[in-house]
Write the structure tokens for this entry.
Amino acid sequence: MEASNKTLLLDENVINAAVANIAQAVISEFSPEKASQLVFIGIHKRGVMFARRLVKAITEKTGTEPHLGTLDITMYRDDIGRRKTLPQIYPTELPFNINDQIIILADDVLQTGRTIRAALDALTDYGRPSLIRLAVLVDRGMREFPIRADYSGKLFQIPREKKIIVKWKELDNEDAVYVSDRVPQAAAEQAPQTENAVKQ
Amino acid sequence: MECTWTRKDLLSIYDLSADEIRMILNTAAEFKKVSERKVKKVPALRGKTVVNLFVEPSTRTRISFELAEQRLSADIINMSTDASSLKKGETLLDTVKNIKSLQVDIVVMRHSASGSPNFLARHLKAGIVNAGDGAHEHPTQALLDIFTMREKKGSIEGLNVSIVGDILHSRVARSNIWGLLKLGAKVTIAGPSTLVPKEFERIGVRVCDRLKDALEGADVINLLRIQHERQRAGFFPSTNEYARVFGLNRETMKYVKPDALIMHPGPINRGVELDSAIADGPQSVILEQVTNGLAVRMAVLFLIGGCIKND
């Protein structure tokens, strides 16, 4: 079900530039010897694609490929039992030790900050990284937790009535970010949860 | 469209769609990884209370559920036959009313009467998980069996699964049969004709009188525990004869494919339905079933926990 009044926020070129800028910022921040501890972890579902792009950009720029992991935060959500249904759990793949590593946590949209809170709890159950940084493609405002991004592609203040839809070629055949009206509450309760509506 | 879980109870496999079964199995695969971590606990059911109401003796299922609940950070109350007032003559409805007053979130129930979890589900807002009811169903056992088969064989579709033993009284067999048929497996049942109802043919199950026919070509052989009280009730002449005619041993193993899985829900009667050498042999996945049982129960409790309303 496609939401109404969908307008383009970022196109493919802007997304590519944002990825390149963040990759460059990460490279500049960490000296080459520290760069060997860099680990990118994408939050399911669309943060994974973002992390993958960042790893690709860094590999192209430096010639070394940082580790790439995926994280599903469903088991750590703070609204289990408050939601009508639970989203599907995607695989958490962290095939490396995260102890003493520098983690760049990547998500597509930073909104309330609750997903990031859950991700931090999940990560600390896997080990004790030396540093965790947060990279997001879009920061849309609307924060409910004291969390901010260390690297953001684009900053906006988008009102609560609007939602952000991120599309990746691997999943949706295009790279784009849209803003659209939220489905009204009554309709949303009958309709199955869409991918973006489950975003905390 | 991806499947979503919308049930507050897991009462039977019969009720579930193939997609719902797959969703539980996929969720369980992720929970299996949690038990392989150093920190084997997630906060998913933090602040929720689970009652384990076991009105029929059970050790391994209860322990498996209890550990699953602990790993999900739930608070736990155990009520078993020995301790509970049910033994003092309290009716199930009165027990239900007590549970209601305690405001628990999930009840895991084992009962000798078929349908008692359904009774509970009708009277309680809490989520109900059937941990075995009479000869009706044992959904989490079937889910862990199917999870193990899928993990080892890749897919359930087209798999030849033979269930051998006392099908008539077995809730494990019923739940397995429903689940396997929904996922596209070919199911064969075998055992003494007094314990293997021909009626199962009507739902697409192959019924065999001879063990050999059930073993040949099977990808999975699930052996059921043969209960001695059935022999006393005259369903078969003697345990020795059962072992000779329907037991899996070195002699009958020659009909079994070398890559077939040998499964058993436990506890095993060594030397009756299954010989020790085979139970401990390379084709046996019996202990992996136990490991997977924990993962499957975590998944079920998690999904149920997501659907109970606490406003």
